[in-house]
Structures are given as structure tokens and as C-alpha cells.
Fold:
Amino acid sequence: MPLVYQQNINEATKLAVWHIAEEEVFFLKRVSLQKEITHPHKRLQHLAGRYLLTELFDNFPLELIQIADTKKPFLPNEAYHFSISHCGDYAAVIVSSANRVGTDIEIVSEKVGRIRDKFLTAGEQELVEEIFNIQRTMFNVQSISHVQLITLCWSIKEAMFKWYGLGKVDFKEHLRIDKIDVDKNEFIAHCIFKKDTSINIIVKALMFSNNVLTWTVT
Structure:
């Protein structure tokens, strides 16, 4: 079973990552397509995400999932709060029966670095440089690259965006990263959601196999 990561965050909240190595028939034994998807790999990602929901909570009511105008999937009665992310051959899911949640998974990519000015403030880019230089000084090697850190920041903001779920968010203006604590391949980002009101948010992250996984629970 390609469940490559799972964490019980609290009594009500679970997080997991699935490495998609199966054919569609494997997932279709338990879940079904809830919308028309023509691209074969995107169909696999869709099925894997919903399959993973039932891995975390076997009574998850897949048939009740609706899609908001913002394209966020949700349950009308909010019996569970959940967030799904797909990237390459991975699907990430966070589910909670009590807390609002958001998750994102990204492949580390130079493409994100080329658009950094669109989603990172000058202060956030200085934070990236500070972390890069500290890590290089501490370990006397380039332990975390610029592209990894930029992808990390993008994923942190994506997790916040999915946590909010209502759309119309400017990643540079409304989603701010104040500080990032680093412990090898694990990270804790201290953030502020600044739309309508200011809300302090903690986003946690993990790097593995050239991927970045982020999640937040409030």
C-alpha cells in the first residue's frame, strides 16, 4: 500500500500522502469519478484523493461532496472539513471533524522561482535569503537550495489559501509569512492571513523526494 506519510495531528484531524502507483481499477473498487475528467493522470489524481479520504475516515461521505464556485470541494453539513492536493504521482489529504484545514503538495520547481515577485513581498524574499545563508553557515554546505525555499513559500501560501476556501485572495497582499523555523527537512511557518481581519496561522511543512508538503489546522 503506497501510503507514504500519515500523521494524526489531533484526535479529530488526520493528514496523509499517497504515492499513486495503481491503475484506475484499484481506486474504482471503492470510489467513483464525481465529474468528467478526460486526462488519464488527472483522473488518477482525483480518484486517489477521494480514496485517501476514506482511508483516513472510513465513514467519510464521498457522495455528499460538492464543489464551490471557488472549485474547493466541501461537505454541505461540514461533518468533516477537508482539503485535497495533487502533484505528479502524489495525492495529499487532510481531514478534520472539528477544525478548519488546508494542505498543499508541490514538486520543487524552477518555474516557481521565476514568478517569486508575484507572490512574495520584499521582506519575504529577504527571509528566504536569511534562511539560505544560515543553513549554509551551520552545515558548511548548501543544505537547502533557493528553489526549495521558494517552492516552500509558495506551498505555505497555497495551504493558507485552501484553508480560507473563499477565493479572491492576493497571495502577496493577503497571505504573509513572518518567520520560518527550520529543523532539517521539517518547517514551521508563522504566518498572517490579512484579509478583512488579521489572523495568525501556523503552517507546518515537510520536504521529501523533491516534494514539499504543507498543512495548517485552526
In short: Helices lie at 24-28, 40-56, 110-114, 116-119, 122-139, 146-164. The mean pLDDT is 93. The first helix runs from residue 24 to 28. The radius of gyration is 17 Å.
